[in-house]
Amino acid sequence: MQHDEMVGKVQALTRLPGRGPAERATRAVLATLAERLPPGLADHLAAQLPPELAASIREVTDSASAGASKPAAERFDLTTFAGRIAGRAGTDEDAALREATAVLEVLDAALAPELMEHVSGALPADIRELLPSGRASGGGT
What we know:
The protein is mainly alpha-helical. It has a single domain, classed as Orthogonal Bundle (Globin-like), CATH 1.10.490. Helices cover 70% and strands 0% of the residues. It has helices at 3-14, 19-36, 39-47, 51-65, 78-89, 93-110, 113-122, 125-128. Helix 1 packs across helix 6, helix 2 (19-36) packs antiparallel against helix 5 (78-89) and helix 2 (19-36) crosses helix 6 (93-110). The longest helix has 18 residues, at 19-36. It is globular, with a radius of gyration of 14 Å.
């Protein structure tokens, strides 16, 4: 799936007023997801995304691998997940959760099923609940 198509689908699902807010939401979710995933899995995710969106993940994984103070894979819950997305997207936590659900749905349609199974398995149950219903039942940390 191409960049414009992915952002357009996020915009349609979230009913955001324009492409700019949908782009910000998509990038915010991807960056926050990258912080929560093991670095190798985040790299695999980035490899299957259009370059414009993969950059949001690579910024996180590159800074972690360069010895930055943040760990490569952080353990945090849904509340922290929503708060980080809200901060990055410039929205509130309720909107951030709606946006995350939309982005994860678009990712589920765009990426290889095996990769989404791994992503699902790497997430704790509360964040995994944002995934489309077929993925939300997998095990996680």
